[in-house]
Amino acid sequence: MPATPLPTATILGYPRIGRRRELKRAIESFWKGNTSETELQRTASELRAATRAHLVELGLPAAGGAVPESFSFYDQVLDATIALGAIPHRFADATGGSDLATTFALARGDKDHQPLEMTKWFDTNYHYSVPEIDERTPLAANPAALVAQLAEAAAQGIESRPVLVGPVTYLLLAKASDDAAAGFRPIDRLDEVVAVYAELLAALAAGGAGWVQLDEPALVSDSLAVPRAEILTLVERAYATLGAATERPSILLTAPYGDSSAALTRLGALPVEAVQADLVRGTLPEADLSSGALATAFAGTQLVAGVVDGRNIWRTDLRAALATAVRVQDAGIATVIGTSNSLQHVPHDVADETKLDARLRSWLAFADQKVAQVAILARGLAAGTAAVESELAEVDAILADRQAAPGVRDAAVRDRAGAVTAADRNRAAEGDRRDAQRALDIPELATTTIGSFPQTTEIRKARAAFGRGEIDQEAYDGFLRDEIARVIRLQEEIGLDVLVHGEAERNDMVQYFAELLDGFAVTEHGWVQSYGTRATRPSILWGDVSRPAPMTVAWSGYAQSLTERPVKGMLTGPVTILAWSFVRDDQPLSDTAEQVALALRDEIDDLVDAGIKIVQVDEPALRELLPLDADRQAAYLDWSVGSFRLATSGAASDVQIHTHLCYSEFGEIIDAVDGLDADVTSIEAARSRMDVVDPLGDHGYSRGIGPGVYDIHSPRVPSVAEQTELIQIAAARIPGEQLWVNPDCGLKTRGYEETVASLTNLVQAARAVRGA
Ligand code: MET
Ligand SMILES: [Zn+2]
Prior knowledge:
transferase; zinc ion binding; TIM Barrel; repeat; 2 domains; EC 2.1.1.14; metal-binding; globular
């Protein structure tokens, strides 16, 4: 039993990067050698202290473990790797010195070591460093950082709660290292890993921790290697052991990012002191709630009701959130107000957005506002709804204002979306399109790129100068036109078949469109960590979406005017625009996607009128938004594919529609990819050495396909021989007239030298295979 119960207000985690991305700057300056490790540690420690004090100021109790210790230099999964001492053998000679040095060595690699792979964390746009585990990976508890942070907090008069990715999730997110025997699965080492967690917990208890938080989002996912029912059994096994440990803090077990309702009663029965449920994405187990089974399971266990949404930036409907928490409490369960997941996915503070429209701003809640909301709800839960009636009424009024505000609902947009018919989602038959597109005169094994060319310092400088008003529109446009002309000439010289304009005008493939569409707003400081020191600034999609004017036609049309070869128009698809923005929560995502699709449909029309014959609509986030919950996947794939088809089906048969998806694990969505009905699809494949061509071959995929032959994630230049071999692997399974030759993804993060060398080799490789 907990010595002290968890206070009734908590959050699962807070942004780590700093209000002005101080941590990013400090780390990058350390990487450059401008500051010492001691200085970096001092900055980090100051940032942590400021965060703890700020959370208390915002209403989290200083005592009792309400304040999470969720700092990370780089990534929380990597932190768990360090805490478990699970350093892959291949890094044995690369670690060194301190935990921090090891962290950066694993995250970034060096000339002799590929870094740990990075992949998306559940259905978010945050990337974690994938642990590599085999039978012999060392495991040894390393609680130093966790204990030190606890002591730091104590010195500040705050009793904080260390946060760690839990053992089951950690192992399910790991991959078997290259040294592992065939059939080895990291999860096979669960018992050993749990023993190390027990040691970590003992060290935390000795260090004075009253509570520890162990995150097990694996509990809500159907997308992991182990079926969900089995994950629950593994969690039960792990926490039976951890719960039985005598030297440990009280355990808060969390199940963020999705629906744990089917597991919640069993989780409540575990020998832990608190369990969190995401009640935004998820629901309560109604039958067990009304029968009393949930209360029985939770006897002696607190339930952290995750009623404040940690994934979006809208003010919580406090009345509804409180009602949910009250239902749990009235069932006889000790209830704590919490967030649905860590606030690491939202920016710091709405108050920083002084340039945002005041009315829009009043509807928003970033991390700080969400903490304050948690505190209000906790007061309401303790003292009754009446005690917080004025706060609830204030939110009621704000939500009503939002619903009634101009632009939130645009009759013309809604009428048009309402009139969409099935015919609007269908193009002519595939064969007819193939015939009509022969006029494009595209060779077998046609070579092309994915869209962006290197974003050079000069491009960034020009954009910044234009942003500051130092150069005018005319000068900036002239700069971009010169850049486009250069990129077109370069592609002709290299000998590519289908050209691109290079995307020099785009700061970001989503934000560019968000700035030109109605219904979006852009923030000034709304940074969210994407991975390591990288952050993105998602736009806010707040209203009905429409296109006041063409967005890309001038650039693409200009590029096409410079060459005889076809230039691909380049658009970002509806799902990706939604996935990488903060989207409205007052209507189904599918409705929002339809509006974006209609705007893109008009853009394609205008591109074609301007002489563009090939249009690529990128959907790299199609896989990312796939719900973790298997029950919700079919409906998602249906609307997401439908929105792509709505965007692209206005194109006549002689217009070739391309799409691009940059990941290779697409076996599970191959039917959906087929359903997009794009004439040509490019996908990532180089790193997996064309693994995707087998599923495609088995599937009998009949349209154009461009499996990447050039890994653009590193500056390495792939040789002609290497790219030839990859093309040959693909050509063995896919007929030449269907096969395209292209890199894995866009080139914007690459330098020119390596890009030119790699593309030159790519063209030669395609010619070699064609000639063979
Ligand atoms: C993340 S997918 C990127 C596609 C985009 N057209 C580019 O080349 O950059
Ligand atoms: Zn890509």
